[in-house]
Specification:
Blueprint (H helix, E strand, L loop, with lengths): L7 H26 L4 H6 L3 H23 L4 H24 L6 H6 L3 H21 L4
Helix pairs in contact: 1-3, 1-4, 3-4, 3-6, 4-6
Length: 137
C-alpha cells in the first residue's frame, strides 16, 4: 500500500476523496447545529444562508488544503482537518455568543444578508488562521 501511495495521482485521488467525504460529514454536522435547514433555505433563495454555507465550505476546504500541505500521511491530514473543523465550529458558536443583541441562526433564516456576509467572512478568515497554525508532523 505504501508503494502505491508513492504514485502522485493515487495520493492526489486519496487526499481529494477523503477531503470531500469529510466536507460532506462536516456540512451534515453544521446542518444539525443550525436551527434552519441549509439546503432548504438555499433552494428557496435565501442568500444569507447561501453566503454562510459557502463560507463554511470554503473554510473547511481551506483547512484541508493546509492539512494536506503539512502532512505526510492520510491519517495525519485527516486528523488536522478534523481538529481544524472543530476550531471552525467553535468559531461559529463564538459568533453566536458574541452577538447577544440578535440570534445569528434566526437572522440567517430571515435572509439577513449582512449577517450572512459576516458569517462567511468569519469562516473564511479564521480558516486561514487555523490553516496557518497547522504544522508539519
Amino acid at each position: 500500500m505504501e508503494t502505491l501511495f508513492e504514485i502522485e495521482i493515487v495520493r492526489t485521488a486519496a487526499y481529494y476523496s477523503v477531503s470531500v467525504l469529510a466536507l460532506l460529514v462536516f456540512l451534515a454536522v453544521f446542518e444539525t447545529v443550525t436551527k434552519y435547514k441549509n439546503w432548504h433555505e438555499i433552494k428557496r433563495g435565501n442568500l444569507a444562508v447561501a453566503l454562510a454555507t459557502g463560507g463554511k465550505i470554503f473554510g473547511v476546504a481551506n483547512i484541508f488544503r493546509h492539512s494536506i500541505e503539512h502532512s505526510d500521511t492520510l491519517l495525519t491530514m485527516l486528523g488536522w482537518g478534523v481538529f481544524g473543523f472543530t476550531l471552525l465550529l467553535f468559531s461559529y458558536f463564538m459568533f453566536e455568543f458574541l452577538t447577544p443583541m440578535f440570534k445569528v441562526d434566526e437572522e440567517l433564516a430571515r435572509d439577513n444578508r449582512a449577517v450572512g456576509f459576516i458569517s462567511m467572512v468569519i469562516s473564511i478568515g479564521l480558516s486561514y488562521v487555523i490553516g496557518a497554525s497547522i504544522i508539519a508532523m
